[in-house]
Design goal:
The chain is α/β, with parallel strands linked by helices. It has a domain at 505-633: ANL, C-terminal domain (GMP Synthetase, Chain A, domain 3), CATH 3.30.300.30. Helix content is 32%, strand content 24%. It has an eight-stranded mixed beta sheet with strand order 12-11-8-6-7-14-15-23, sandwiched between helices. A seven-stranded mixed beta sheet has the order 5-4-17-16-18-19-20, sandwiched between helices. Helix 5 (96-112) crosses helix 9 (221-227). It starts with 7 loop residues before the first helix and ends with a helix. Bound molecules: 5'-O-[(S)-butoxy(hydroxy)phosphoryl]adenosine. 5'-O-[(S)-butoxy(hydroxy)phosphoryl]adenosine binds next to helix 11, strand 20, strand 24 and strand 25.
Length: 634
């Protein structure tokens, strides 16, 4: 069977086969990879217990499929292009052969440090080639990588390192982002004060800034690589062996370490990459995400490499040295598929169009969006100015938990409409649930988005806490996977994601739980309690609004606001800083003591005349106070 869908009839045929004979459908796709032992069963699952296995009994190594498999015919083709932060620094093209060499050497470095199959390795690196090589080297020896976005603070880092008892941290002296230099090694040193599980730190050199070295613990990557052999045979992995852990926010303070396993993740990311981006051999593909997020895992590294693609990794930011940087890179490498986030599109759309018109962008064939709902204005700007009215836009809906894209148009095959992620990919059965927990059967409807049947790359568990996994995703609607998103469906069966229905807020495409932010704020000695809600923001999609009650009087509200944001930066990272802070003398609560966020959300949105019935509150009087305060302070 060929895996590339070229017509709507093929899409429909694939969709029904995947629905009616899922095992036959997925085994055909899996057969196109190299397995050192074939699987015993395609899929076994129990949606009630949240147990899934795909291709179990099969043995493979994802890096053999990402790299070695291509050495026959693509050894000298570029696998990765590294575009540095500064346009004055040259790009680096890494061929499949060179990638193989680098990953094998790195695998031997890891083994030399005593890392074995099943051990956890934390990777805290900027977007430099060493990041990709480290991820792949872990996968090659069977160590479980846990990439932690290099924008996270030292306490967020140590919490994640400890949660998975990582033995090794791979970092760099520093990182470049726009005109800033970030002291990553300093952040790691701080984090490791609380991480007894870590034996070694492997340090890549990027900024050549002065760093502190603990000789018994720290190893320069350069020295270790110089001594390492480049011969390494990939470790055969069971299909269900964990490949990686990636943290996402949840509605309690503790981040959830989503666990993805080997075989199903491999098959699904490869299949979706090929179809969603209509990737053809020789195409140059660029996803602007950071490898610290799932988008980078699945669609900078694994999906593209599994398809033998050329994938760009960009170290910098869209506005440095000017807002034309993305388009400069598109023309420079003649990018064919470009994948970014609505927040970047909105930020660039605000700038003068001359930053776009300077470039011809002729190479583009498909442009994509991910991370949050794309509003119609941004969609139209993207379609007209970047896609020149002719490139299909793939608005791809998915999650860290889903491993790969679940709902998206297929370019030049299935129809697209602005703001709709449109139709499910083959193998995906979305449903909408009404308020009573029943499936909405009519085509047109609005409800909570759930998925009915497992797909190969569904997360298998939360690291160390299967109960929480079950509880979070499989308990609200027994028998279904609950996404946490609301959605509507039109009469053509197309889905439009309307946003989170839980305590997660998507800010600039980053998934932020309100609980960890509130926990951080509440640590301040003058603060009694806080509640965070989102409100619409022109560029970020949503921004954060904090309602904060104090223990006593505050002398300098401005200073306290600053202190709150500093605390958030230190505990989580600058991405979680609040745009607005309002001090209140109480928070609206239900009689059982739960904060009524619905009311706060409306006030934050500037919609406070429309609060609905508040008479059942424990303390309705605070609402008036908060309403007045919000008008004064904002
Ligand atoms: C949440 C998942 C998937 C990679 C990046 C984010 C929102 C994601 C879309 C989209 C509307 C979207 C959802 C989802 N989201 N893509 N195309 N349209 N919303 O991964 O950090 O796990 O966040 O992002 O709310 O649940 P994540």
């Amino acid at each position: 069977m060929k895996t590339k869908i070229n017509t709507i009839q093929e899409y429909e045929a694939n969709f029904s086969k995947a629905k009616n004979q899922p095992e036959l459908f997925w085994q055909d796709i899996a057969s196109q990879f190299e397995w050192s032992k074939k699987w015993d069963s395609v899929c076994e699952f129990n949606m009630y217990e949240a147990e899934f296995s795909w291709f179990s009994g099969g043995k493979t190594n994802i890096t053999e499929n990402c790299i070695d498999r291509h050495l026959k015919d693509k050894a000298n083709q570029t696998a990765l292009i590294f575009e540095p932060n500064s346009p004055n620094e040259s790009a680096i093209h890494i061929t499949y052969k060179e990638l193989h060499h680098r990953v094998c050497k790195m695998a031997n470095v890891l083994l030399g440090l005593g890392i074995k199959k099943g051990d956890r390795v934390a990777i805290y690196l900027p977007m430099i080639p060493e990041l990709s090589v480290s991820v792949l080297a872990c996968a090659r020896i069977g160590a479980i990588h846990s990439v932690i976005f290099a924008g996270f603070s030292s306490s967020a880092l140590s919490a994640r390192i400890n949660d998975a008892s990582c033995k090794l941290v791979i970092t760099s002296d520093g990182g470049f982002r726009g005109n800033k230099t970030i002291d990553l090694k300093g952040i790691v040193d701080q984090a490791l004060k609380d991480c007894p599980c870590v034996n070694n730190v492997l340090v890549a050199e990027r900024t050549n800034t002065e760093i502190n070295i603990i000789p018994s613990r720290d190893v320069f990557l350069r020295d270790a690589l110089a001594k390492a052999s480049d011969l390494h045979l990939a470790q055969p992995m069971d299909s269900e062996d964990p490949l990686f852990i990636l943290y996402t926010s949840g509605s309690t303070g503790k981040p959830k370490g989503m666990v993805h396993t080997t075989g199903g993740y491999m098959v699904y990311t490869a299949y979706t990459f090929k179809n969603v981006f209509a990737y053809e051999p020789g195409d140059i593909y660029w996803c602007t995400a950071d490898i610290g997020w799932i988008t980078g895992h699945s669609y900078i590294l694994y999906g593209p490499l599994l398809n033998g693609a050329t994938s760009i990794m960009f170290e910098g930011i869209p506005t440095y040295p000017n807002p034309g940087r993305f388009w400069d890179i598109v023309d420079k490498f003649k990018v064919n598929q470009f994948y970014t986030a609505p927040t970047a599109i909105r930020a660039l759309a605000k700038e003068s169009l001359s930053h776009v018109t300077k470039y011809n962008l002729k190479s583009l064939k498909v442009i994509g969006s991910v991370g949050e709902p794309i509003n119609e204005e941004a969609w139209t700007w993207y379609h007209k100015n970047i896609g020149k009215g002719k490139c299909p836009i793939v608005d791809t809906w998915w999650q860290t938990e889903t491993g790969g894209i679940l709902i998206s148009p297929i370019p030049n095959v299935s129809p697209q409409i602005p703001t709709y992620a449109t139709t499910p990919l083959p193998g995906i059965q979305p449903v909408l649930m009404d308020d009573y927990g029943t499936e909405i059967k009519e085509l047109k409807g609005e409800g909570r988005l759930c998925i009915k049947y497992p797909w190969p790359s569904i997360a298998r568990t939360i690291w160390g806490n299967h109960e929480r996994y079950k509880e979070t995703y499989f308990s609200a609607y027994p028998g279904y996977y609950f996404t946490g998103d609301g959605a509507l469906r039109n009469t053509n069966g197309m889905y439009r994601i309307t946003g989170r229905v839980d305590d997660v807020i998507i800010v600039s495409g980053h998934n932020l739980g309100t609980a960890p932010i509130e926990d951080a704020i509440n640590e301040h000695s003058e603060i009694a309690e806080s509640a965070i809600v989102g409100f619409p923001h022109e560029i970020k999609g949503n921004a954060l609004y904090g309602f904060v009650t104090l223990k006593g009087n505050v002398e300098s509200p401005e200073k306290l606001k600053e202190a709150i944001n500093k605390l958030i930066s230190a505990k989580i990272g600058p991405i979680a800083k609040l745009d607005k802070i309002q001090f209140t003398n109480g928070l609206p609560k239900t009689r059982s003591g739960k904060i009524m966020r619905r009311i706060l959300r409306k006030i934050a949105e500037g919609n406070s005349d429309n609060l609905g019935d508040i008479s059942t509150l424990l303390n309705p009087e605070v609402v008036e106070h908060i309403k007045n305060g919000s008008k004064q302070s904002n």
